[in-house]
Amino acid sequence: MSKMADYRIQLRELPDWDAYLLAQSGLPGPRGNLELAQAAALEGEKKLFLRYLQYTPEIAPVNSPFEFLAFCGVLGLGRLTAEGSDEFLKLIRSAASDPRWRIREAVAMAMQLLGDADMEKLITELIQWSEGNLYEKRAAAAAICEPRLLMKPQYAIAALHILERITESVETEKNRKNEAFIALRKGLGYCWSVAVAALPDKGKKCMERWFSSVDKDIRWIMRENLKKNRLMRMDSNWTDFWFHSLQ
User: CA 162, CA 198: separation in Å to the nearest integer?
Assistant: First the structure.
C-alpha cells in the first residue's frame, strides 16, 4: 500500500482533520507532506476546501503548519474542478498570485489534476492565464509543463505555444526586480526543457528562436534549461553546443 493510500484510510476514520493535518504537515520544514495533501484533496469535500482557503498569508504565513491547510484547500479545489466543477477556476487562479510559494505550487498541481481529466479544458484556461499577471503566467507554464500531461504531440505543441506567448512578454517587461518576475523567470528556467523533451524536433526549433535574443533574462532562461539533464538525455550534442554558444 502506498503512503498516500494509507493516509486516505486514516482520514476516512477521523471526524476532524485539522489537528491531524497540522501535526503531519511537515511544516515548519523544507518539505511539506505532499502525499498527505494529495490524500486530503481526494477525500475532502467542497465545504472543507473553502474553509481551508480562509487561511490567508496573514494568519497562515510561509512555512507554518496552517499554510498546509491552505495548500490542501487549493489542491482539493483542483480535484473538484477535474470532476467538472468549473466554478472554482477563479479561486484557483486567484491563488496563483498568493505571496506564499507553496500555495503557488498547489495551484500548478491543482491545474494538473484538471489536465489529467481534460487536457483541452486545461489548455483553454491556461491560454487565458498566459495573458494575465506575472504570477498567473508562471502558474500557466508550471501547470502545463508536466511530463505526464505532454505524452500526446498536440499537447506538447500547446505547451510550446503557451511558453512562446509567455516568453515574448518577458521582452517587454519593465519591472524585473519584483518577486513576481523573479518567480516567472525561475519557472521558465525549467519549463522549456520539459516541453522540448516531450516533442524534440519541434521543441528544439521553437527554443532555438530565443538563442539569438539579446535580452539578458531570456538568455538566462535558455541557459538554465540547457543545464537540465532531460535535454542532455534527449540530444546531448545539441544541448552542449547551444549551452556553450550562450555563454
Answer: 14
- Taking phi over 0 as left and psi of -120 to 50 as alpha, with beta for the rest, 63 belongs to left
- First-last CA distance in the chain: 48
201 lies in which domain range?
151-247
Residue 139 within a domain: no
Q: For residue 212, give the H/E element and its range.
A: none
Grid coordinates standing for 26?
511537515
pLDDT tens-digit map of 207-246: 999 999 999 999 999 999 999 999 999 999 999 999 999 9
Whether residue 133 lies inside any domain: the answer is no
What DSSP designation does 121 have? H
Residue type, 169: S
**pTM of the complete model:** 0.96
- Average pLDDT of the residues of the chain: 97
Helix (H, G, I), strand (E, B) or coil at 60: coil
* Spatial contact of 136 and 128, defined as CB atoms under 8 Å apart: no
Burial 112-140 (b: 16+ CB within 10 A, else e): bbbbeeebebbbebbeebbebebbbbbbb
